[in-house]
Amino acid sequence: MSQPKRISSTPDFYVGSVVPAEDLRFRDDFIRELWESILTHHLILKAPRRCGKTSVMEHLRATPQHGYSVIYENVQDLTHPADLFLAILDNFRDQHPNLFHALVKGWETVTSWLPKVEEVGYGGVKTKFREHVKDYREHWRDHGEALFRQLRSLKRPILIIVDELPDMLINLKKEDPKLLRDFLSWFRDKRCDPLPKKDNVRWLLGGSINLSSTLDGMSLLDRINDLKDLPLPDLTPRQIETFVREMLEARLVEFEQKVPSRLRELLGRPIPLFLQMLTQDLFRSWRNQPRKIKKADVEIEFGRFVTSTAAQDKLQHYYTRLAKYYEEPALSQAHEMLNHLCLTVEKAGKDEGASRATLMQIAESAYPPGKLPPVHERKRLFLQLMRDLENDFYVIEIAEGRYGFASGIMKAWWRKHYA
Ligand SMILES: Nc1ncnc2c1ncn2[C@@H]1O[C@H](COP(=O)(O)OP(=O)(O)O)[C@@H](O)[C@H]1O
Ligand SMILES: [Mg+2]
Fold first, then answer.
1. Atom 4, ligand 1: which residue's CA is nearest?
2. Which domains does the chain have, with CATH numbers?
């Protein structure tokens, strides 16, 4: 009998695109945990951008468990609940064409103009729905309720992944705060009746931004308190070093033992995208000039990376998003604190950071003249801001009461551009 041949394949670098399920590493335990939680809860999967959320979602979609059919959509640019429902409908049609007939069976709003589903091309359901149901936005509740009803009538496990929902909610807030309130209340009620355990439909909502402050400010935090919060874990120091070692070894690169750990130190809190980019840079530098890669080479590549245009594109995002999601005076306070933190000294490869007291002073001096709130309120707002900055990956508590930039790359970049 012939043995199956071993295919030795070199893993690819992924620098920005979604990592396909077969190449996704270090996430097995987390994905197992996700599937277990899905059995009993609706979930929210949180992590800043470029940490690997969509890749995990893609894994759920490509290799579903427990008999689930998974529908994925990214709703980052949507501005209305009705468009969320249409996105789900459209993606259902694209991702599960065989089930689509059963989904819309008896749903007259759709079946009246959709006699032959086969004739509708990619993205076509949404367009046709809008054409035929002119006031589809006005009656968003009716359409949403119909969608829930139809999904439930399938009587089989359905997992709906809604990526970047917080962005859509922020869009709603800007356009129509009342609609945001109405939608959040309506959506929670629909999700929770019946209870998940008795429901065949599950929701996994993904987000790169932290909604807590926004919703808290509008007294809406209880509208998402049924969701089980599953933060995407950071890659561990060991996983990071394993990644560097294996990607280089697979390409026959010779390197000093210390190379993976030095790269890990420079990264700080690891944003997986930057891990990939930096490792790829090291590999390219070796390819241009084959030699044994040394610790000093890692430092040189790190310096180059921070000033490269490739990094510029990705890092600029972290700067701009502050302005998008942080409102004044928190925005100015965040800028002032980060401008301070990007200059803190490093001793023996470790950032000294700044004390909480120093940061609080900086925050207070950023209040506009005459607008200083009372002491207890200042303190509350400061703690809230620090929590947001931590959750959004800008800062990290490096020692009791001391904070520093979470990402070494971001710190170096910030210093270069904004100090
Ligand atoms: N498990 C992983 N191991 C290594 N790199 C990863 C991993 N997951 C994600 N990445 C890196 O992060 C990048 C962004 O992944 P993505 O899933 O789009 O993140 P997000 O949705 O959080 O923005 C990928 O292109 C890849 O460089
Ligand atoms: Mg994503």
1. 272
2. 26-231 (3.40.50.300), 237-307 (1.10.8.60), 318-418 (1.10.10.10)
